[in-house]
Design a protein that fits this description.
Elements: E1 2-4, H1 7-19, E2 24-29, H2 35-47, E3 50-55, H3 75-85, E4 89-91, H4 95-98, H5 117-120, H6 124-139, E5 143-147, H7 151-163, E6 169-173, H8 193-198, H9 201-214, H10 220-231, E7 236-245, E8 260-268, E9 271-278
Parallel strand pairs: 1-4, 2-3, 2-5, 3-4, 5-6
Antiparallel strand pairs: 7-8, 8-9
Length: about 280
């Protein structure tokens, strides 16, 4: 497995790979890899000849007073996990190689990104779409794999790819969970053992909402209320709980079975957690 830091070296690798007629799948990550990320590598291996995993903690998607400085960084361990899983390249550029001192060009998606996480993290998705565009321009993947734990993010990227006629296929991969149902996330490292057990109530609330919908309830307000009442306690502050279109992550006026998703974000103590479930 190759480790490439320079964007120019990465572009040269891509040129050589494409000249040989090989396809490339990209798995964009911010590192601190867990089994959820590695499942994306598995999915990518099924889709293309060469798998590139990017490891880049992207500063432009963090807002003021967010956790950019303390976000977990463990590159050597990440690289070893990628190699063991069969990745061909880990692309790990420095921030200065991606964003020049006078960087001033951003990519905005202006519909989907205004809801859910976008309400409380107003520049978050601008940072995501910008860095993903940069990575697409450097790596020129045929396929890019994203996990549905960040379902709104996938929807935003799919819309960007569609609207800007980007020549890349977006593949969604399912959420990977702990045994207690907690969706795997790099930020779970902020939770101690007892908190990881307690945080499972987020998934339990989603399951309760799904069960209510499947019982025949099509009242979105009732479904949302059950989810909120199930998850909320002294340690858990709900940021949002919404029923949205399963593909676009946009709000829906009525529930249609199999085509909707309950999306939730909470502060569990000092840790921000997001999750979702298709209903």
């Amino acid at each position: 497995m190759k480790i490439i830091n320079s964007p120019d070296e990465m572009r040269e690798f891509v040129r050589t790979t494409k000249a040989c007629g090989k396809s490339i799948a990209l798995v964009p990550t911010m590192g601190a890899l867990h089994e959820g990320h590695l499942s994306l590598v598995d999915a990518a291996r099924k889709c293309a000849d060469v798998v590139v995993v990017s490891v880049f903690v992207n500063p432009t998607q963090f807002g003021p007073n967010e956790d950019f400085e303390k976000y977990p960084r463990q590159f050597d361990e990440d690289a070893a996990k990628c190699e063991a899983r069969g990745a061909d390249v880990v692309f790990a550029p420095a921030a200065a190689d991606i964003y020049s001192k006078d960087f001033s060009t951003y990519v905005n998606e202006e519909q989907i990104s205004g809801y859910l996480c976008g309400r409380t993290r107003p520049k978050h998705f601008r940072g995501v779409t910008t860095v993903v565009t940069i990575l697409f321009n450097i790596v020129k993947p045929d396929i890019a794999v994203f996990g549905e734990k960040d379902a709104q993010q996938v929807s935003v990227i799919e819309r960007m790819v569609r609207d800007l006629f980007m020549d890349v296929k977006i593949v969604r991969a399912p959420i990977v969970r702990d045994e207690n149902g907690l969706a795997l996330s790099s930020r779970n490292r902020y939770l101690d053992k007892l908190e990881r057990i307690g945080a499972a109530r987020v998934h339990n609330a989603l399951e309760a909402g799904k069960k209510l919908a499947e019982s025949g309830c099509d009242n979105i307000d009732r479904i949302k209320a059950l989810v909120i009442n199930t998850v909320a306690n002294a340690k858990t502050r709900v940021i949002y709980a919404e029923v949205v279109d399963a593909e676009t992550s946009l709000p829906v006026q009525s529930y249609e079975r199999g085509k909707c998703r309950i999306s939730i974000a909470v502060w569990y103590g000092q840790t921000r957690l997001i999750d979702n479930i298709r209903i």
